[in-house]
Amino acid sequence: MAQKTIAMLVASLRKESINLKLAKAIELYAPQSLRFDYIRMDDMPYYNGDLEGQRPESVQRFTDSIRAADGVCCVTPEYNRSIPALLKNAIDWGSKPSADNVWHNKVLAMTGASPGGIGTAVAQQHLRQILAILGCIVMPGEAYISFKTPDMIQPDGSIADESVREFITAFGARFTELIERMS
């Protein structure tokens, strides 16, 4: 099986982000057939149709990265029962112009971590709604992590708790299977 390139989108800017730790865990426990590229989103201006004629280089880099990837893994926190503006802005840039929508037929897996009891369930529901209208192929099921202790996932992505480690491993395996089926 040829190695597949995955665009990893971490929708948190915090240096000690639990979502960054979760992204590292996904990378660590995913099948070796996946290679993860962490894609910057923080250097793009807010979406503005007036910039379409001369897209900023940061936007072109982002859309080229998504377009070139075999799949996208989105790890997002939940802000006010939705996704962060950082992620929404990236989605908007990627969807325009409509004829060049990088999300159309792109395989995407989503997850997120939160200290709360329901993890990022509502943010993921909102993200699923946004991506569906853009023609994205979103991996079925839910995968949100309630980050019960600050050291649940180490900065390198390692997980001591066997049940959490198995859940993350299964997430990566399901994502790999979907990418293979859709390619």
Describe the structure.
With 183 residues, this protein is α/β, with parallel strands linked by helices. It contains five helices and six strands; from the N terminus they run E-H-E-H-E-H-E-H-E-E-H. Strands 1, 2, 3, 4, 5 and 6 form a six-stranded parallel β-sheet that branches. Helix 4 (121-133) links the parallel strand 4 (107-114) and strand 5 (137-138). Helix 1 crosses helix 5 (162-182). The longest helix is centred in the last third of the chain and has 21 residues, at 162-182. The termini are close together. The relative contact order is 0.20.
Proportion of residues in helical segments? 25-40%
Kindly, what is the distance between the CA atoms of the first and last residues, rounded to a whole number of angstroms?
Answer: 12 Å
Task: Figure out the total of helices.
Answer: 5
Shape: globular
Radius of gyration equals: 16 Å
- Tell how many strands the DSSP assignment holds: 6
Provide the structure class: alpha/beta
Give the integer mean of the pLDDT values: 95
Q: Could you spell the SSE succession in H and E letters?
A: EHEHEHEHEEH
Percent of residues in beta strands:
15-25%
* Main beta sheet strand tally, sense and closure: 6 strands, parallel
Which spans have pLDDT < 50 for at least 5 consecutive residues?
none
What's the quick description here?
This protein is α/β, with parallel strands linked by helices and 183 residues long.
Characteristic key phrases:
183 residues, 6-stranded parallel beta sheet, alpha/beta, 16% strand
Which SSEs are present, and which pair or pack?
Blueprint: E1 4-10, H1 18-29, E2 34-38, H2 57-68, E3 71-75, H3 85-95, E4 107-114, H4 121-133, E5 137-138, E6 144-146, H5 162-182
Parallel strand pairs: 1-2, 1-3, 3-4, 4-5, 4-6
